[in-house]
Amino acid sequence: MDDEVEKVFLDELAALDRFRISYTGAYPNTPLSREDPDVRRLLEGLAMFTARTRVATARALHRNVLRMFRQHFSHMLGPVPAMGMLSAKPSARFVDPAVLPSGSEVMLVEPGIKGADDRVFRFRTIGELRVLPLELHSVVPLRMPDRSLRLVLQFRFTTRHAMMMDVGDLHLHINHLDDLASSLMVAYALEKNLKSAGVVFGQTVREDTVGTPCRVSFGALPEARDVLDRASYPLRDVRMALRFPRQHLYLNIHGIKLPGAVDRFAVYLDLGTTFPTDLRPNHDGFELFAVPIVNERIEMANPIEHDGTKERHPVLHPDIGAKFVASDIFGVYRMTDQGLDPIEPAVVSAGAPGGGSESRPTYDVTYEGQGARRNAFVTLDVPGAFDSPVNVAVEAIWYQPSVDTVRMDDVRVALADRHLAGVEWSCSGALMPHGESSIEESDQDLLELLSIKNHRVLDLEHIRCLLRAVGAAEGSAYEKFTNAMKNVSVDRKPAAKSSTGFKYVYNIEFSELGPTEIPKLEVYCRRLFDLLAAWSTEEVIELVGRVVGGRATVRVEGTS
């Protein structure tokens, strides 16, 4: 008897006992004494039958709601795996540039205690990392004659001699004092106060130095070209971005071309007079070669032999010791001599003319538990399997909840399938633990989200419902901003590039916020824009966030 059934059983038993007391009060001669063992067995039997029926009905209803929801928004359910930042530090032995492709596998190895086996956690990179024999040597602030600030980023080659190569773009991860709030403040101040930027080769930058102009941008790493991330979906990406904001904290310097062989060069940022004087960006606050990593991998589960005698089959990872847990199912296939034959999900309508829907195999997926106790089960409906058993392959996304307990001070970081001589790998800062879905167990939230699926315009409550679904409401780092939303209005304006000729501008009013919270509000509004853009598949969306009293205005625009 599980905890839920036991609780309902005790409640039903108490209700039946109250009924027995009231009944014997009305009919004193009725033999319904509590001490009578037959009466007690009868009451317990009725209570157990009612409890099991009620719990089974509630669970069946919840499974049906989940099935409907997964048909439309499967990527908003399930856990968000642990995430972190991988940092590369080239040494003097590293000479030639190298590219670590997006999706490369990274291993975090924790040594075993008292003779126990090492624990190995497998991550993959989100984005491409280009490593050069280069280092950020120093960050020097210069006060200009007009009281503005010039920030000089001095780079030099790790080979300690002049080199000629295509530097191209540099992506500096902002990690000020290893603190997210401080890093957001620095990134916000740099972006809002940047006036111009330039690059100088082979000489010291002073207050009056004029270099070659270069373009600077802020935000996440550019998407890798010609690389298909099968685990990437817009709504899932928003969940991960809200869970781990550090993956978007980059200072991107574009188009650096060396005029010849040089041993050093510098990039200066002219920041104007309004840059906060209490912010002091330093050398340790910028990481030259860093890329986000996520604890997930896509691979096949143990093969399943289906002979029609089991209602469902567990989805198990081949490496039992690694303690992988399935977070999502990609596909289910029948193994034949010709290869893998896809099996359709049970939620897909099979009523097409001539489709023979009565003979097509289907599958359904259910999940139970959370964290390390999460289990995935596949229910198969394969006609003829009882007479001719079939072998079934399941492809899933796996993650390791046990990584939340890793001792980061002892962890050794290495690439799983390649070796770059002269490059030292490490994790920048702490890992972000995995997070569970806040709506997976709430039928009310699931049905509410389904009800707004086809709404072209969302009001305040609809937006809050979406934010709860992606984990930006109760208990999250953005709970304050979700609660601070006071009013939402939507304007419809002409837009030549839209297929409908119009765009929707969301005007969101926030209650009063402190000046130190504005950088985080900026990030919040950008992720909210991404969420609305992913939800509204046809319209051009613009989002304008205003704080009461005119303290700040955040504007985000683009095409969904």
Would you spell out the secondary-structure blueprint of this structure?
Layout: H1 3-26, H2 37-73, E1 83-90, E2 98-100, E3 105-110, E4 119-125, E5 129-131, E6 134-143, E7 149-157, E8 168-174, H3 180-193, E9 196-201, E10 212-213, E11 215-218, H4 234-243, E12 250-256, E13 264-270, E14 286-287, E15 290-294, E16 297-300, E17 304-306, E18 313-314, E19 325-336, E20 339-342, E21 344-345, E22 362-368, E23 375-381, E24 390-399, E25 412-415, E26 423-427, H5 443-451, H6 460-469, H7 479-484, E27 485-494, E28 502-510, H8 518-535, E29 540-547, E30 553-559
Helix pairs in contact: 1-2, 2-5, 3-8, 4-8, 5-6
3D architecture notes:
With 560 residues, the protein is α+β, with helices and mostly antiparallel strands. It folds into 4 domains: 3-76; 135-283, no CATH class; 299-399; 443-559, no CATH class. It is built from 8 helices and 30 strands. The protein has helices at residues 3-26, 37-73, 180-193, 234-243, 443-451, 460-469, 479-484, 518-535; strands at 83-90, 98-100, 105-110, 119-125, 129-131, 134-143, 149-157, 168-174, 196-201, 212-213, 215-218, 250-256, 264-270, 286-287, 290-294, 297-300, 304-306, 313-314, 325-336, 339-342, 344-345, 362-368, 375-381, 390-399, 412-415, 423-427, 485-494, 502-510, 540-547, 553-559. A hairpin with a 5-residue loop joins strand 6 (134-143) and strand 7 (149-157). Helix 4 runs antiparallel to helix 8 (518-535). Residues 348-357 have low confidence and may be disordered.
